Glycogen debranching N-terminal domain-containing protein (Streptomyces glaucus), 714 residues
Amino acid sequence: MGQGWTFAGEATQGGGDSVTLIEGSSFCLSERGGDLAPGTPQGLFHRDTRILSVWQLRLDDEEVDPLSVIAQEPYEALFLGRARPRPGHSEATVLVERHRFVGAGMREDLVLRNLGNEAAACRLTLRVEADFADLFEVKEGRVQPRGQYGVDYGDGVLSLNRQWRGESRGVRIVAEDAICSPGQLTFRALVPPRGTWRASVLVTPVIDGVETPTSFPLERPVEQAGPSVRTSEWRRSGPRAKVGDESLALTLRRSCQDLGALRIFDPGRPDTPVVAAGAPWFMALFGRDSILTALMSLPLDPQLALGTAQTLARYQGTRTDPVTEEEPGKIPHELRFGVEASLALGGTVYYGTVDATPLFVMLLGELCRWGVDPDAVRELLPHADRALEWVEKYGDRDGDGFVEYRRSTDRGLANQGWKDSWDGVNSADGKLAEPPIALAEVQGYVYGAYRARALLAEHTGDAADAARWHERARQLKRRFNEVFWLPGRGWYAEALDGDKNPVDSLASNMGHCLWTGIVDEDKAEAVAERLLSPEMFSGWGVRTLATTMAAYNPMSYHNGSVWPHDSGIVAAGLMRYGFTDHARRVAEAVLDAAAAFGGRLPELLCGFDRAEYAQPVPYPAACSPQAWASATPVYLLRVLLGAEVCVPHGRIRLAPVLPARFGALRLTEVPVGTAQVGVRVTEAGEVQVTGLPAGMEVSTQPCACTAASAPPSS
């Protein structure tokens, strides 16, 4: 889009001084003064549809000069502006307050404060338009009128709607004291000397004739509204961290706040939260993104991870549809609600992802390890088995033992791993890989899924099934290391192309292979050294592609940029294989980048070297906050603690390698099974653990189910 949008937990500015407010599946992208300008990507969006495309306030037909934006919550902002001087006056005397709350639409409280000694007669207008454009159209700059538009107005009410493709989208705007006409609300105010005037406007979405209940009704105090209550509960619950380094403390606070703001709730299941991929354009459930975020932030909120798994299971594929790429057992790539989704994705649920399905099984294994609601996890076992059936029947169509992808039509994503840009998979000479493509990290995810399913079988007392899945994992690991390892290069191929030739670029993907444990131990050191080489390590994290590769571009999306979540996974993989110094270098680099961004990691940053520029260079169109970037600091703290939990085997591993500059660390209320565990690490590195569940012990060694080496035969 050419602009970087930011998220206003406090007033943050991005390209064009934009401010974003967000709550659930509603978000508002505006100018710094609060207006939504025509002909821009700004607007109020609900469930992937722009329900306001213009929202411009004028006082006596004049623009209001913006002064400041104050936003304490992700969904709330106070826009302060100054009215132009009154006729015959040299100084402005009217202050304009626009107090905006976003959630299932929007509420805007308007206040005029007269700071003068004479009464001020004011004509306040709001210009209103709604194009009901789909989010995809807005994001890609291709909005055009579609269908039949209608308008209805009366005393204090203005309704706009559009009929298209058999569906109706509308918005109802209610302002008790306003004179409503097509495209405009008008207020006539007389503000006493040193006095105030107030009015409120409610904007509610209407979907197929059904009005969505507002999140901020006028008759209820704001602090009792649903978004306020959920935010307060999120901040009260979950683990607490006290750390000596204030920069790390700020980063952890921001990460937790952003993860809370990125939660979305299915109206039909309001008690089941899931995590959206990122603001503003990806406030939807994404298979890969949501699963990885849930895995990385599981100790923060196990119910968020469980809710994500349960929701994805409900949308698991049941039939074969080439247009949406649905297949039996497949976990979806993303869920969308706009009318345009059927054109852009083939349907509201799109399945064009190769990795979400094995990652789903890995998530169930991690839920089991942390002892999260065993009955709920057991209910998901049939979904795990269907996912693994997809892996072996549809994922590996040619029977070579590896999972590969090729889109079914020209409508879907050409690349379907996490590097899903059109040029995201290429050889050392820059040649694009031809499908079907078998990505290295996907084989690692399948290996992790097999081992997770073995653990789940052990947990339910099925030793024979556990042995079967362990054997599948061993076979895959052996074949992967035979085929993907490039001995002449000293690294793993990024992928196999359609002719089964290795895609030989030096890329970060093999760090994910360390993470899952599929790397042979005799090759791990070479992988670790490559990942921390000057070609790969920027000083702010690990690059997606080495500087020595032909396609390298530090300002690209996937060919040389640094993605915090990618580096977090690499750090965890390095720690898994015992490369603690390497892991700590990566973790410190990413946390330093977070500090440079004020505690909030963006989706990605440019891959320029730290020696070249003293500050990380932002990628201009990065989402911020973005789910797995927000989860990365939480995950890196776990990596630096060497923390792994396995409730089924009664073991907690803690082997901290915290940098000295972080000082002492104290964690409380960490959920492990039904217990709340406390962890204290002194500046000298001594570890104290309290509140352990009965039957569990603390060790510095990993459990067999999380160790890098293959488990023994069952």
Summary: The radius of gyration is 27 Å. Residues 15-219 form a domain with the Beta-galactosidase; Chain A, domain 5 fold (CATH 2.70.98.40).
